[in-house]
Every structure is written in structure tokens, then in C-alpha cells.
Amino acid sequence: MKTLSIVCIILLFISIVSSSKTEKPIKYENCIISQNAIGNWQEDGQIITQYSINIYNNSPKIIQSIKISTDYTLCLRDIDSIWNIKLLPNGDLILPTGTNSIDSYSSHTFYFIVFGTEKVNLTIKSITYSI
Question: What are the distances in angstroms from CA 116 to CA 82, 113, 125?
């Protein structure tokens, strides 16, 4: 019985420690990503959709860098079907070479062409603002 009590106390302690280390997702309320379908068509029996994506910086600070995560929904028609953004090998998106920042109260637009009509899951992973 004493051993069972000790095990229960240890399990309770582990659950408290684990829950306190759980990271909450960071919200970037001053940065909004919007997707607009420009058009779609059929190609080789598959529906293809082109999207325009805007990153809005609604902050008084300049965005120096931004990292956007994607998932399986970013199913590009081909490697050349994404432009004005850099696609990293792990699937993350960052500002392209030559675009050093997004000014305050400004936006950056990029495009891609994907299979299907489902919007792509885009999540802001990190932002670095100027000081």
C-alpha cells in the first residue's frame, strides 16, 4: 500500500511538471496571412488552383524575417509553381532573396499553383521584428 502511494505521488508530480512545460502556440496578432484563389482549371484530369497569398504586417515595427510552416496541403504542381517566396527543404517558407523585410503597415504577396482546390495550411512559425 505504501508503494502504491509513492507511485501515485510520483505520477502526480510528473503530470504537474509536464503540464507546466507545455508550450502554448505563439499568436502573431499583428501579422495576418490571407489566401485568395485566383483561378482553377483542369490539367491531365486533375484540378489545378493558383493562389495569391498576402502577408500583412499590421505592426508599427518592420518584419525583418518571417517563417511560415506548411503541411501536406502544399501539393505544388511542380517545383516552379511557387514564386516570390523561398521554399526551404523542410517545407517552411521564408522571404525570398532580395526581399529583406516587410515594412510596417505593409504587405508582401507571393503565389503558388497546387493540385486541388483545398486552401493550403499556412501557419506563422516565427517573426523577427526590427527594434
Answer: 15, 9, 25
Residue 29 is predicted with a pLDDT of: 82
User: pLDDT category, 75, cuts 50, 70, 90?
Assistant: very high
109 backbone φψ class: left, alpha, beta (φ>0; ψ -120 to 50)? beta
Going by C-alpha positions, the residue among 103, 96, 100 that lies closest to residue 58 is 103
How far apart are alpha carbons 39 and 128 in whole angstroms? 33
The per-residue pLDDT for range 99-110, each reduced to its tens digit, is: 889 999 999 999
Q: Minimal CA–CA distance to 57: which of 11, 101, 6, 113?
A: 101
Instruction: Give residue 120's identity as a one-letter amino acid code.
Output: V
pTM of the model: 0.77
